[in-house]
Write a structure and sequence with these properties.
The chain is of the alpha/beta class. It has a single domain, classed as putative 2-phosphosulfolactate phosphatase. The protein has eleven helices and eleven strands. The chain has a seven-stranded mixed sheet, sandwiched between helices. Strands 3-6-4-5 form a four-stranded mixed sheet, sandwiched between helices. The longest helix has 17 residues, at 154-170. Bound molecules: D-malate. D-malate (MLT) binds at residues 26, 28-30, 71, 74, 84, 103-106, 146, 207.
């Protein structure tokens, strides 16, 4: 199994992903928000690459029967029902709803990778469950870090490195690209506290400045979820098996 990491989706075009198995990571905060929303019972998430398209999809295709969510510069967009804070995506708000989501980097990375034959969503929350699934699939893998403004982001790269190390626990036979090895090395170097690491990143500092420190706590919860969201080319849903194991995981946690 070969694994490559893209530190930003900008270095390749959409066709690069044709037929590939891919994972998109935006640890702060988009992919964490997506996992949270689906676990709260959202029917599906429709990721979009522009605000204009978000409004069009929401109005035109679903007759305004959707929730519009997303951010610009971390803040809720005027006219949208929700921002990009995982804490907003509670069951009371999103259960049974289709959420159209626009975020600066995360949903753009997902839409860019839309030609992948299998496209999964990863964050610190679901890393072990996702790693086990990918190891069993045993297909070459592209891990896409959403990055920041077409650039490197520490938190996504560390999350990618952690994902690779978790895959390696199940499948020792990995062939890693230089960027995959660099991500693993970064993950091994940052110390133990994911929360501390996240707060110390450029994006973490911006979130704190803008009043979203609690979101960083949500994004740091390693393996709090067994859910595996996947994008089917139109919408992001949970893999059915992951729903069951997620529910039994939650039951175990509450017992
Ligand atoms: C993004 O897609 O760039 C982020 O999720 C930004 C954020 O809202 O923290």
């Amino acid at each position: 199994m070969k694994i490559n990491v893209l530190f930003s989706p900008v270095s390749v075009d959409e066709l690069y992903f044709t037929g590939k198995t891919s994972v998109v990571i935006d640890a702060l905060r988009a992919t964490t928000t997506i996992i949270t929303a689906l676990e709260s019972g959202a029917k599906e998430i429709i990721p979009v690459g522009t605000v204009e398209f978000a409004v069009k999809v929401s109005g035109g295709m679903f007759g305004w029967q959707t929730l519009l969510g997303g951010e610009r510069n971390t803040k809720k967009i005027e006219g949208f029902a929700l921002g990009n804070s995982p804490l907003e995506y509670s069951a009371e708000i999103v259960n049974g709803k289709t959420v159209v989501l626009y975020t600066t980097n995360g949903t753009k990375a997902i839409t860019k990778a839309k030609f992948s034959s299998k496209l999964f969503i990863g964050a610190f929350l679901n890393i072990t469950a996702l790693a086990k699934h990918l190891a069993l699939l045993n297909r070459d893998l592209e891990i896409i870090c959403s990055g920041r403004s077409n650039n490197f982001s520490m938190e996504d790269s560390i999350c990618a490195g952690k994902l690779i190390s978790e895959i390696e626990k199940v499948n020792e036979d990995l062939i890693l690209s230089d960027s995959a090895k660099a991500s693993q090395a970064l993950n091994k170097s940052f110390g133990k506290s994911i929360l501390k690491m996240l707060k110390d990143t450029e994006h973490g500092k911006l979130l704190i400045e803008n009043g979203f420190e609690e979101d960083i706590v949500s994004c740091s919860k390693l393996n709090s979820s067994n859910s595996i969201p996947f994008f089917n080319g139109q919408a992001i849903k949970l893999l059915p098996d992951s729903v069951e194991s997620s529910q039994s995981g939650l039951e175990a946690k509450t017992n």
